[in-house]
Amino acid sequence: MRTFDYMKLADRMWDSEILTYVAKIHEYKGRQELYVRQKPMALERLVLIARIQSTESSNQIEGIVTTSTRIRQLMDDKTMPRNRNESEIVGYRDVLDTIHESHNYIPVRPAYILQLHRDLLKHAGLSYGGQFKNTRLFFILIDNPPFLEYNCN
């Protein structure tokens, strides 16, 4: 495992570009804290919008598509899922809530990732949620030069 010795930073010379970046980060962090204190409702609204968009986009990648209105209803926990796709959306919502609420306390370790995976699939009734895959994967080589050229470049 790699470790980082922060004490070595004190001995290092930093150019003005790096110091400018550090100053900007500090300035933006101060603005963010001010915004959190002065406009918490606006920030909560932005977080809600981001969560809905994240859910919609991530599920579209998996081929799970529904209306924006229906996603909002599922995200607000105002309705029950009608099918497996909607159950997966609800699972995604639950995991996203867990991550947003507890990200400081969730280490990146297999047990925690498996727990999130279990929670992701629990509404869909899938038995493999929270388990490592235990089947072998087989790959098929496609002997189609135009396909390979398009997809491998």
Fold and architecture overview:
The protein has 153 residues and is mostly helical. The protein is built from six helices and no strands. The chain has helices at 16-38, 40-61, 68-75, 84-102, 110-121, 145-152. α2 packs across α4. The two termini are 34 Å apart. The model has no long low-confidence stretch (mean pLDDT 85).
Summarize the structure.
The protein has 153 residues and is mostly helical. The chain has six helices and no strands.
Strand fraction equals under 5%
**Biggest pleated-sheet summary:** none
Termini separation:
34 Å
Number of strands: 0
Order of secondary-structure elements:
HHHHHH
Shape: extended
C-alpha Rg (nearest Å): 22 Å
Helicity range of the residues?
A: 55-70%
Unreliable runs = none
| SS element count, helices | 6
Mean pLDDT score, rounded? 85
- Judged by helices, strands and strand pairing, the structural class is mainly alpha
List descriptors.
153 residues; mainly alpha; 6 helices; extended
SSE arrangement:
Layout: H1 16-38, H2 40-61, H3 68-75, H4 84-102, H5 110-121, H6 145-152
Helix pairs in contact: 2-3, 2-4, 4-5
